[in-house]
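Lay summary

Proteins are chains of building blocks that fold into shapes. Our project writes down both the chain and a compact code for its shape. Here are two examples, one after the other.
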Amino acid sequence: MPQVTFEEIECKSALNHINIPDMSQLRWSLNPYRGCQHACVYCFARGNHEFLGYDTGRDFNERVIVKTNLVPVLKRELRRSGWKREAVTIGTACDPYQQAELKYGLTRGALQAFAAHANPCSIITKSPAIERDLSILLELSRVADCTVIFSIPTLREEIWRHIEPETPKPSSRLAALSTLSEAGVRCGVMLAPIIPGLTDDAENMETVVQAARDNGAGFVGDNVLYLKRGTKEWFMPFLRETYPHLLPTYERFYRGAFAPKAHSEDVTAAVQRLRERLGMTPNQLPSREPTGQLQLAV
């Protein structure tokens, strides 16, 4: 287990406004932490650690910024007369239930604030630790829209161990999905990122979509891997060491940040066929990042 440093700061604002025309459903985000102990090799938020003067590799995994006053600041912002109770997405740039949450409880406090103000929100996580807050999620669901989205790119443990080294097992996420769904919380799954050569085959994608449906997901979204600055510099050496046979493909695919449009469209179409066959709906929230260079990790 890596030695993690928690850098405690006070934030000026909790809510981050996102003003992107083609993402009208995602106007506000909230991130209790910056950096993430889950250490996913593909995480698109790695580049944002550079703004803090840290590197996007081990520093991102092991130097976690904690917004210690996030909850009182959020409560103040929710009380403002101009606030229109717009939906807020928690976890657009870090996992709000990473290991730091067990120490600080900032996500739990934020959910309590949203419940008290009947403010809709969604949560994106890879952690079954969210089950701890089931009673709060149910309380929130009674007064406002509340959606929990579990990120599950694969159920293959040999791949999971490499790409998401400090995350809980995908099977434990499915178990948490089932628990929350059965209790009455609206849940979905993001099949993301879909990684060329590792998780974009038909068998892997069908397995995830089928498991999502069987465990109570109301929808499945998808997103093909993109490699922005900060992420690419960390991901490519990982690929060279762990899956060297894929290097020629990635050197061809990722001259920029995004995979070729034709490949992404083929993958999206394949997932849509799976959804239709298994009776699932698409993700009802926008993907974390459109074709532009949106920055969410504020």
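And here is the second example, written the same way.
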Amino acid sequence: MEYLNHYRKFFEISNNLLCVANTDSYFLKVNPYFSELLGYSQQELTNRRFTDFIHPEDVGITLIEVEKLSKGIKVINFINRYRCKDGIYKSLEWTATPDVDQSEIFAVARDVTEELLQKREIEELNQSLKNSLDEMESFSYSVSHDLRAPVRAIHGFSRIISEKHGSSLNSEAQDLLKIIYEESSRMGKLIDDLLSFSRLGKKALQLTMVPMKELAQEAVNEVLRLNQIEPRPNIKIANLPDAYCDRSLVQQVLVNLISNAFKFSHDKPHIEVEIGYTENDSLIDYFVRDNGVGFDMLYYDKLFGIFQRLHSQEKFGGIGIGLANVQKIINRLGGEVWAVSQINEGATFYFSLPSSANNGRLYNKSYKK
């Protein structure tokens, strides 16, 4: 008897909607919270089919679930809308268990109206943000594309003037012409890099299992081929595990990070570069480490920004878009990029990638300043 009192008390004070119904779509018993939420008396709820309270668009799918229950199949996380007495609809999420022998249904529901509303608002905000980013990317692509022709014209004509008429110009004019030629060349490179950055978001991903050690060696060979570095850097490549990714995009990442490692270490008597990894749950954290000038972690927030530079253009060339490309690529592949460094003590750049097709997910990595 004491147990029955406990069950009755639980039924009476629960803040979920509890009910017993039959397969003819009638409530046999509802708890007080049912009446409190919807605004009907218990008698009003039990005297009419429960389908009379359900939003017309949800009646059909509700009857399908009732049919399942009549066959002994449990229903879990089913959502429909119930009309309150004041005309407002509440979204209820149901879990129900049938008693086939008695043609009865024991069900519990919770009000998920606010939860669904917040989820919808978040989805709308995310879509709005995506639309804004797409518009900005399209704008930057269009502007960059339209700038290419006049910048190339300036570059080309300055070269022609220098070659054909340079000898007739005084030294000051020759110097100014040289500046025009060099700066237009730099502007052209900047525009090309900006276009490349814009295209990264449009390129379809070709996801496969990629042999990362082989890819790292290819990236090193490419960087060495394009740069005359003396003395030859000491490069260590660990036995890197394979990753599930887009091979060509990750090769861009490695080429970029290795090029940076060489560039920011060129003042050292011996350039030391290590390419390694650490395993972290279902993701692998790869890294490229150098013994170069490093950077101040106080300015970390600028590190992956487009056109952001932590070192002078005069000493270390470049446009300032490479690390932004790296971050954009790795984020698209479901990973994240981060770095740690000390001034004059080198830098280590990490990027995470899924170890298999089943493990692709965003991974939030915190770093220590």
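What can we say about the second shape? The chain has three domains: 2-111, 113-202, 204-369.
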